[in-house]
Amino acid sequence: MANGSCHPPRPPSSESADIGTLGDPLFLCRLTITLLNGTLWHRRPLYSEIVRRAHAYGLAGAGVFFGIEGFVAEGAVHTTRILSLSDRLPIMIVILDEKPRIHGFVQELEPEMEIESAVVEHVRALRLRRPSRLTR
């Protein structure tokens, strides 16, 4: 859609709610949160707190990916190369669910959390193990 919003979900089908097929996409939103390794929230890793909250909120799925090189605004390039030994590498948290649930979850995150960026994109999931509440 031109305004960048997610497509509305399709009506329910008679297929199993466990795994989507490759030919019939499910329209969802992907939230990608970027932060720096070593960022803490009440003495625990911030990425762990965000994933815990996403799970408690009942979102369809989340994954944490550690980067090997990156930088943020006004920062140096950090890398895993042996001479760098950086502990401030980028971390990306990727979360999938329907648009209203993603937008509701974003509102639940604390403004004080040191999040470098948060991006919401519409996606077509070709295969997804998902809660039965997600429809085609």
Outline the secondary-structure elements.
Elements: E1 26-36, E2 40-41, E3 44-45, H1 46-57, E4 61-66, E5 69-70, E6 78-79, E7 90-97, H2 99-108, E8 117-125
Antiparallel strand pairs: 1-7, 1-8, 2-3, 4-7, 5-6
What does it look like?
- The chain is built from two helices and eight strands; from the N terminus they run E-E-E-H-E-E-E-E-H-E.
- The strands form three sheets. It has a four-stranded antiparallel β-sheet with strand order 4-7-1-8.
- With 136 residues, the protein is α+β, with helices and mostly antiparallel strands.
- About 5% of the residues have low confidence.
- The two termini are 18 Å apart.
- The chain has a single domain, classed as Alpha-Beta Plaits.
- 16% of the residues lie in helices and 31% in strands.
Briefly, what is this?
16% of the residues lie in helices and 31% in strands.
Strand content: 25-35%
CATH architecture: 2-Layer Sandwich
- How would you describe the oligomerization state of the chains in this entry? single chain
Instruction: Name the helicity range.
Output: 10-25%
- The number of helical segments is 2
